[in-house]
Task: inverse folding
């Protein structure tokens, strides 16, 4: 007997998917080691056994064993991928027969590959092998999905195409994106039929996340983990109660999910109990009212206010102290703010060496001195959890500006004792900040990023900047303008980017300082004429030259600058105050030179 069309099935009740192929396979006697997907080629009988176990448990949809079937993951090359995808499809279709639906299972694209290309390649192979429905699962972002879904729709107009995102209990993906934003993207994509959550969270947290969403206009799915794992003898185990899991999955049904299933740790026993609950119409009390999306407002930033008035704010950077004594830093910041700096920016452990925390210092300046601040936040020393905690605290303290940077690497001589974290980059950090804002967890921030106008391949730098803008960057602070090429690159950035531009000014104070910057500091490019200009100068003459060159640099880029970003060398506050006065003079003149 021919299966009912899948949409007709869904109109009559929930569709129950299978559980975890990967974790369950490790408990099956004789299942080969290595990527579980490769068993489609080396032990197809074991894969078939698992599919049938889930079907006997009451599942009416199974996934092909192709979650990591991308080239560079379970597949060695294109030819190997084709063989693996074909075998996986044949095994699943054989197991399902006329009793169940088969979905092509596609997991996240490998890092450093094009998601669109990876998804299209695997989808085409599965379609060629007879698969008619698709599930893109455990996704950290929506990148590549619209093109892949449109392509599948062009080949299979009747396909049911589902996407499933992986977020933590706070509703944030490892790509720094919020569940609300991801689900909104899925709702707006015409070729996506349904969306929801799988992996990372247990059933209760997934139910809570689904209940927090505004009404979703398409099929809603929930495929939780079997609770949370424990590690024993370097192995991961899930040992939560299957009955509790089934009860919570039924509550996901009450929260609106019509497509249900299991992820990591779920076995046929979990799904058997889930099927029993669903068949007996075990419905929980009405789901909580869905929360309204928080109102979106612009950052309450003094920097942004001045930009909106057509003024050119001046940001001044001070390096934080490397001891527990902040006296010189605090007095310098206060003096510069009184002299006309619109905000004090605080570097986050510059050049990878430990110093007083930039966010704590910024909060102190804001709270005790009333100074507008822009702390730098690097991705080098914190994971995403610690970064979120810091963002929550900054929002509480009234800090409304952030410079998101990936961060300098730890110096080579320190690497035996200090390890950089680098769990994510500045783009993901920017998306994380935007996601927390969308969820109402933090007040909006004025988000800045770095732009290296001294990059040898500046077109590549511009491409990175465009990606940062797509993630939510409002403005760019540049490396110092110390050469004609840097000024020209800033003009190119003005043409290419939408965000505000703050060209960097660095007062080089001596010939020794110039040579050090040119040779030892990443992102610096000191013009040869500037190097020569400092030869033989004493301290006073060096500072006078620094002031002159900063004024010339500001004049050169005045028409392309929305503001300026001065870096203070060696805590020379008096020198920077003179440069601030020069910028104020240029602004009063109201002209380039």
Result:
């Amino acid at each position: 007997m021919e299966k009912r069309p899948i949409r007709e099935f869904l109109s009559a009740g929930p569709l129950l998917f299978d559980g975890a192929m990967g974790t369950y396979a490790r408990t099956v006697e004789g299942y080969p080691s290595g990527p579980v997907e490769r068993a489609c080629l080396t032990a197809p009988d074991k894969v078939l056994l698992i599919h049938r176990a889930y079907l006997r448990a009451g599942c009416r949809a199974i996934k092909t064993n192709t979650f990591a079937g991308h080239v560079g993951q379970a597949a060695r090359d294109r030819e190997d991928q084709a063989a693996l995808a074909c075998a996986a499809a044949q095994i699943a279709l054989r197991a399902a027969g006329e009793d169940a639906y088969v979905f092509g299972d596609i997991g996240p694209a490998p890092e450093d590959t094009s998601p669109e290309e990876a998804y299209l390649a695997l989808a085409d192979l599965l379609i060629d092998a007879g698969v008619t429905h698709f599930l893109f699962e455990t996704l950290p972002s929506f990148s590549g999905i619209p093109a892949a879904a449109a392509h599948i729709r062009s080949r299979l107009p009747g396909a049911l195409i589902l996407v499933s995102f992986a977020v933590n209990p706070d509703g944030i993906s490892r790509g720094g994106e919020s569940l609300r934003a991801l689900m909104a993207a899925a709702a707006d994509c015409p070729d996506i039929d349904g969306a929801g959550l799988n992996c990372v969270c247990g059933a209760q947290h997934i139910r809570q996340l689904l209940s927090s969403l505004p009404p979703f206009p398409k099929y809603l799915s929930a495929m939780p983990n079997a609770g949370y794992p424990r590690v024993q003898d370097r192995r991961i185990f899930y040992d939560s109660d299957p009955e509790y899991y089934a009860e919570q999955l039924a509550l996901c049904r009450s929260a609106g999910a019509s497509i249900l299933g299991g992820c990591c740790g779920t076995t046929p026993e979990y799904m058997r109990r889930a099927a029993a609950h669903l068949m007996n119409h075990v419905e929980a009390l009405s789901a909580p009212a869905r929360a309204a999306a928080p109102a979106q407002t612009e950052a309450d930033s003094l920097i942004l206010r001045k930009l909106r008035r057509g003024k050119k704010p001046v940001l001044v950077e001070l390096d934080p102290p490397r001891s527990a004594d902040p006296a010189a830093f605090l007095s310098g910041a206060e003096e510069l703010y009184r002299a006309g700096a619109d905000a004090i920016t605080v570097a986050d452990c510059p050049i990878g060496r430990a110093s007083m925390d930039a966010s704590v210092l910024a909060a102190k300046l804001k709270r005790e001195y009333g100074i507008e601040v822009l702390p730098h936040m690097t991705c080098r020393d914190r994971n995403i959890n610690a970064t979120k905690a810091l963002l929550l605290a900054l929002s509480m303290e009234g800090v409304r500006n952030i410079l998101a940077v990936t961060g300098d690497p730890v110096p080579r001589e320190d690497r035996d004792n200090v390890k950089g974290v680098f769990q994510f980059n500045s783009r993901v950090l920017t998306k994380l900040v935007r996601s927390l804002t969308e969820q109402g967890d933090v007040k909006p921030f004025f988000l800045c990023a770095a732009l290296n106008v001294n990059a040898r391949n500046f077109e590549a730098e511009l491409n990175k900047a465009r990606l940062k803008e797509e993630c939510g960057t409002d403005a760019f602070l540049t490396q110092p303008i110390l050469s004609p090429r840097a000024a020209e690159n800033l003009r190119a950035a003005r043409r290419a980017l939408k965000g505000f531009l703050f060209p960097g000014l660095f007062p080089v104070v001596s010939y020794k300082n110039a040579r050090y910057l040119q040779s030892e500091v990443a992102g610096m490019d000191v013009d040869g004429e500037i190097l020569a200009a400092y030869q033989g100068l004493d301290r006073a003459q060096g500072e006078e030259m620094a002031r002159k060159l900063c004024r010339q640099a500001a004049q050169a880029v005045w028409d392309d600058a929305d503001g300026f970003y001065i870096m203070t060398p060696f805590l020379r506050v008096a020198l920077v105050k003179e440069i601030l006065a020069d910028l104020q003079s240029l602004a009063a003149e109201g002209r380039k030179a």
About this structure: The longest helix spans residues 78-96. The chain has 22 helices and 18 strands. The two ends are 84 Å apart (CA to CA). The chain has two domains: 6-279, 312-510+546-589.
